[in-house]
Amino acid sequence: MNRTKMGPIEAYKQYWKNAFKLKGRSRRAEYWWPMLINFIITVGIAWLMGVLGIEYKIIMTISTILSLIIFIPDLTVTYRRFQDNGLSGRWAYPLFALSLFNTLLQDPQKYALHSSNDTISTIITVVGVLLVIIIVMYVLFSLYTMIKEGEHGPNEYGEDPKEI
Questions:
Q1: What confidence tens digit (pLDDT) does each residue in 17-34 have?
Q2: Which of 2, 13, 95, 111 has the smallest number of CB atoms closer than 10 Å to its CB?
Q3: What does the alpha-carbon distance between residue 119 and residue 139 come to, in Å, rounded to a whole number?
């Protein structure tokens, strides 16, 4: 069996080439190299804007635009990584939905403090804490899946990407 290696440049090309593809499988390199490259690009741009003294609002706008640009490819490569491990790619959806929901409800205490009803305040706080616990557990599960080597040989989601 020919198990080929994938370097950072090829992985990043595959990341963009397969940006809208849910079918098939993605190997670890196709997931991790783009994550690292996108992180370096984002940090580099933020650093450059900070050095240039660019206004915080503009930095946040550019950061949001970058996040939107990589959202779909991040989702689809994560989807295919789950499939490479023999799991439904749909496991990626809750991860992105929970992250989005957590972003919208970043500080459950902030909402609880504005409630005049102690019961509602308690419920909101408990739900917020439970949500954070669920997200942490889910992120750990997802991280394990993204790190874990995919199944050898073909599986129900396609051929082994290392052998293609």
A1: 999 999 999 999 999 999
A2: 2
A3: 30
Asked whether 82 and 91 are in contact (CB, 8 A), the reply is: yes
Tell me the per-residue pLDDT of 32-66, one tens digit each, with 9 for 90 and over.
Answer: 999 999 999 989 998 998 899 988 888 878 888 88
Cβ-contact 26, 84 below 8 angstroms: yes
pLDDT tens-digit profile of 123-133?
888 988 998 89
Return the exposure string of 99-130: e unless at least 16 CB atoms fall within 10 Å of the residue's CB, then b: eeeeeeeeebeeebeeeeeeeebeebbeebee
Main-chain phi, psi angles of 98, to 5 degrees: -65, -40
Question: What residue has token string 């690292």?
Answer: 36
pTM (predicted TM-score) = 0.82
The pair of three-digit structure tokens given for residue 126, joined into one six-digit string:
């408990």
